[in-house]
Design brief:
Layout (H helix, E strand, L loop, with lengths): L13 E2 L9 E2 L13 E3 L9 E2 L2 H12 L2 E10 L9 E9 L2 E5 L8 H7 L3 E4 L2 H10 L6 E4 H8 L6 H9 L1 E3 L15 H12 L1 H15 L2 H13 L22 H21 L3 H4 L2 H10 L4 H5 L9 H16 L21 H4 L1 H21 L3 H4 L2 H9 L7 H10 L4 H15 L2
Parallel strand pairs: 3-10, 4-7, 5-8, 8-9
Antiparallel strand pairs: 1-2, 5-6, 6-7
Length: 432
């Protein structure tokens, strides 16, 4: 995992005996769900640091071992976000009863489909599965069953769901997270990094078992299974349309000619970053792109005066100025327009002017969903996505009823448990 984790102790878990009936109340967690006393630092994998698998023979041995193992498979992947172009995996970690732990170098072994097939029918235990599954899919590893310990923690009501915090609060161990944001494309990988990577899967199945027990106690286990099934069945995300529009600071750029400069600089930067295999931010920062778009410099001397360009070499400066010049030379018909409105309702801040009745529906719906989420002791966005609530409130069914609202929610991809919980709330809100 590449995101830094906070390992400080969580506050006690709040649970409810029947989340559909009773308000949340602080209770003593079941034995095995949370621990008492000082947490224990976890310093070494129980079987030691496994050697990095980097050739066909060693990989075949891992496939055989994991095919012969039993129970769920803990899976993790390390990327080089902020260092390399894209989000490919640079290390894959696995652990399974009967097979032990394995660390695989997907640069040396770029096709892990044999391993994916060997464990494909088993349940894969991941933390924040949606972060790792795309890069795992690229190397041939696609699960059929998933248990996401981060999402399980959210549904169970844990206030902090990073892996370090969850392991500490649930199992009573402290994971060292100091290497979470390092450059995992480094070769050879230092031993402390490998130790950290092996420990990330050391207790993942133990954490899964405790969370399953807690979800079952709260009456939420079926809800979690529906969520996990949706994750496993989700298709790969399509490429973003006009990704240059996501440049940080774009809200400052108003004129179409300026938008063209952002587009040209962003695309030039992306080509350079891809060719060099480095993070685009290491080639040119978003802030510099926006500054150039606002200033529309006429030559390299003017460009060099802008923040972000002062220390750029002359050749690079000429490349960036050429991009600006291309945008300046475009005919008006070729200039990009304002950002295309996404399909669906306008931003909520505009509702009061555009449709006061819809604004009132949204206000009532938000209040109702917030109260229900608090009652169920989970984040609102896991109860139902805010976008779904907005869409239903903006264009409610012609006849508001439990059946029509449930059908609308299903059409927007809500799971059965979400529909069951949220439909009464939205019926009341839409009927006001």
């Amino acid at each position: 995992m590449t995101d830094a984790e906070d390992t400080a102790a969580d506050s006690p878990l709040r649970t409810t005996r029947d989340p559909r009936q009773e308000p949340p109340a602080k209770e003593a967690p079941d034995e095995g769900v949370a621990t008492e006393g000082a947490p224990v630092p976890l310093l070494e994998p129980r079987d030691g640091i496994p050697p990095v698998v980097a050739d066909a023979e060693a990989f075949a041995a891992v496939v055989t071992a994991f095919a012969g193992g039993t129970g769920p498979v803990a899976v993790d992947a390390e990327r080089a976000s902020g260092y390399r172009y894209g989000q490919r995996a640079y290390l894959v970690q696995l652990r399974r009863d009967g097979a032990g732990s394995a660390l695989i170098d997907p640069v040396a072994c770029p096709d892990l489909s044999a391993l994916g097939a060997a464990i494909g029918e088993a349940e894969w235990v991941l933390h924040a599965a949606t972060q790792d599954l795309p890069c795992l899919r690229e190397i041939g590893m696609v699960p059929t069953l998933v248990f996401d310990t981060e999402l399980a923690g959210r549904l169970a009501g844990y206030p902090r769901v990073g892996l370090g915090a969850m392991v500490e609060n649930v199992l009573g161990y402290v994971l060292e997270k100091g290497h979470s944001a390092v450059d995992w494309s480094t070769r050879p990988l230092p031993e402390p990094w490998l130790r950290y990577a092996a420990l990330d899967v050391e207790l993942l199945v133990d954490l899964r078992d405790c969370l399953e027990k807690e979800l079952d106690r709260q009456g939420k286990l079926d809800w979690a299974r529906q969520e996990f099934a949706a994750i496993a069945a989700a298709p790969p995300a399509p490429p973003r349309k006009d990704p240059w529009r996501r440049t940080s600071g774009m809200h400052k750029v108003r004129r179409r000619r300026q938008l063209a400069v952002v587009r040209e600089l962003w695309q030039t930067r992306d080509r350079i970053a891809q060719r060099r295999d480095v993070s685009p931010g290491k080639v040119l920062g978003d802030a510099a792109i926006v500054e150039a778009a606002l200033a529309l410099p006429v030559n390299t001397a003017a460009l060099a005066q802008l923040p972000g360009f002062g220390r750029v070499g002359r050749r690079q400066l000429e490349n960036w100025q050429a991009a600006v010049d291309r945008a300046r030379a475009l005919p008006d018909s070729a200039l990009p327009g304002p950002g295309q409105s996404a399909a669906g309702p306008p931003p909520p801040r505009a509702w009061a002017d555009k449709d006061p009745a819809a604004a009132a529906r949204l206000s009532a719906a938000r209040a109702g969903v917030s109260a229900l989420a608090e009652q169920l002791n989970m984040p609102q966005e896991n109860l139902i996505t805010p976008d779904t609530v907005r869409r239903v409130c903006w264009e409610p069914p012609a006849v508001v009823s439990g059946e029509t609202v449930a059908a609308a929610l299903a059409g927007y991809g809500a799971r059965e448990w979400q529909i069951e919980q949220v439909t009464p709330v939205l019926v009341r809100a839409l009927g006001q």
